[in-house]
UniProtKB/TrEMBL annotation:
This is GCM domain-containing protein. It comes from Scylla paramamosain (Mud crab). InterPro entries: GCM, GCM_dom_sf, GCM_large, GCM_small, Tscrpt_reg_GCM. Pfam families: GCM (PF03615). Residues 190-203 have a biased composition (Basic residues). PANTHER family: GLIAL CELLS MISSING RELATED/GLIDE, TRANSCRIPTION FACTOR GLIAL CELLS MISSING-RELATED. Residues 157-210 are annotated as: Disordered. It comes from the Eukaryota. One of its GO terms (biological process) is gliogenesis. Keywords: Developmental protein, DNA-binding, Nucleus, Transcription, Transcription regulation. GO terms for cellular component: nucleus. Transmembrane segments: none annotated.
Amino acid sequence: MVVLEAPTESKMAPPHHFDWDINDTNIPKVSEFDPFVEWTDGHCRFVYPVEQEEAKRHSSGWAMRNTNNHNVNILKKSCLGVLMCSLRCTLDGGAKVHLRPAICDKARKKQQGRPCPNKSCSGRLEVMQCRGHCGYPVTHFWRHTEHAIFFQAKGVHDHPRPEAKSTAEARRSLTGRGLTSTLPGQTSHRSLHPRPLHHHHNPRISGNKRPFLLLSLPRPLGRVF
DNA sequence: AATTGCGGGGATT
DNA sequence: AATCCCCGCAATT
């Protein structure tokens, strides 16, 4: 990484391939922005407009939690992995169970040990941790300037994607009604689910986002000067 | 009740 | 000093 750190001559670099790192003291201005990428993976960087709502929220398809890096200018988040069935069962539709870990520690602890949502499975939910960045969770970095929101990711996720945030929220509002507590060692099967809740994977999302079309961007290009 | 960001503080290298 | 983690707090949704 690096470049353009020349203490004296920081202004001038070749107009082309202007490189930047989230930690640079001088971050370049950009004239073009990237479309928001929900499922970033690998070492990548994007620049979003300050009006971009997802970017403003520092959101991601991956379940990311804030981690303190003691730097007020750069927000750091690390991946929480994915909630899986301990028996790795397969749902009727052929899909696997990979739910979204709650960001809140307390809520996530409650998720673990709950019965697998597959009613014909006796497994329990457990967190598969992310170790995609040198044995540590994948990290995301966010940095705001007057003109743009800079994003940088480090590491390659070594686990399946969790369900999308919108899907997790939808289920939460369905399932979280009334009595909540179901303890791991308990017999209270709260399979009150009116309908099978597999199809997490594309019922509604097609309307407002196209998850796959934008993923084929080979890399960020043509946006910097 | 869960999300998000902040920040103190501990452990390690 | 840097990096990583855990925890509690507060504002927000």
